[in-house]
Design goal:
GO terms for molecular function: metal ion binding; taurine dioxygenase activity. This protein is an alpha+beta fold and 282 residues long. Helices cover 20% and strands 27% of the residues. It has a single domain, classed as Clavaminate synthase-like (Double-stranded beta-helix), CATH 3.60.130. The longest helix is centred in the first third of the chain and has 14 residues.
Length: 282
């Protein structure tokens, strides 16, 4: 197995591994690379739904089927992220998956099925590096603070189903999903590292209204979160697999390919409730 970092901050390409059949020692090497590099990439894997589910289950217990995404027939935990002719993707947001949940996912396994001839890359950002780049004064202001997260960005999208009366299926499902409140700075449950835990798709407001009086806004924090210095951009090929740590990254789907067919399969692993990283109690 060979692990080649994409840059000094985030991402690594791993070769010499058959993800469908790797032994325990090889998988442990993959897992340690996953923790170190935040997102790991593989080529020429061509995982079946069964193989993808087995691989994801090695990272932990699998999430329930996604409430909005369609899924592979007979495999409800394998979501289909698909663009078809006449059905282009909508607006893309930087996000950490499913932070509207009290316990957002640990990680995701995404496998490319078919792709446009060009375009459709995905970008990840290391949110631990983003936090480390903040001034000590701003870190003190964010210490112990929380923010509200809620479902947003799916209504009216390609993942919605609008009835004859104009009602949104997403809205009907999500109306009973109560907002949750997560620490703004989270301690990674395995490495102990602090990470800025905000994202523009699901973080809706800061709970401490005095932060804005001190000049701290979500707009500014989102802008800091998208710093190119802390990113990696991955160009998909058929059979490519990406596995990312959802606890310390955000990602962004580049929708520059119109309605050219593109399909990926995603399986998500359950996480735990985020815990605050406190400067004076680390």
């Amino acid at each position: 197995m060979e692990v080649i970092p994409c840059n000094t901050t985030i991402g690594a390409v791993i070769s010499g591994v058959d993800l469908a059949r790797c032994d325990a020692q090889t998988f442990e090497g993959v897992y340690q690379a996953f923790l170190k590099h935040k997102v790991v990439f593989f080529r020429d894997q061509f995982l079946s739904p069964e193989s993808q589910l087995r691989l994801a289950a090695r990272f932990g217990e699998l999430e329930a089927p996604h409430p909005f995404f369609p899924h592979v027939f007979a495999y409800p935990q394998v979501s289909e992220i698909e663009t078809t002719l006449g059905n282009p993707p909508g607006k893309s947001y930087w996000h950490t998956d499913m932070t509207w949940q009290s316990a957002p996912p640990k990680c995701s396994v995404l496998c490319a099925q078919h792709l446009p001839d060009e375009g459709g890359d995905t970008i990840w950002v290391n949110m631990e590096a983003v936090y480390a780049s903040l001034s000590e004064k701003l870190k003190q202001r964010l210490d112990g603070k929380t923010a509200m997260h809620a479902v947003h960005g799916f209504a009216g999208s390609r993942f919605d189903d609008v009835g004859s009366g104009g009602e949104s299926l997403v809205d009907n499902i999500s109306k009973d999903m109560k907002a949750v409140h997560h620490p703004i700075v989270v301690k990674h449950p395995e490495t102990g590292n602090p990470t800025l835990y905000l994202n523009e798709q699901f973080t809706r407001s800061l709970d401490d209204k005095y932060l804005e009086d001190e000049g701290v806004t979500l707009t500014d924090l989102f802008a800091r979160s998208h710093a190119a210095d802390f990113q990696v951009r991955f160009q998909w090929q058929e059979g490519s697999v990406a596995i990312w740590d959802n606890r310390c990254t955000q990602h962004f789907a580049v929708t520059d390919y119109g309605d050219k067919p593109r399909k990926l399969h995603r399986v998500v692993v359950k996480g735990t409730e985020p815990k605050a990283y406190l400067l004076n109690h680390v």
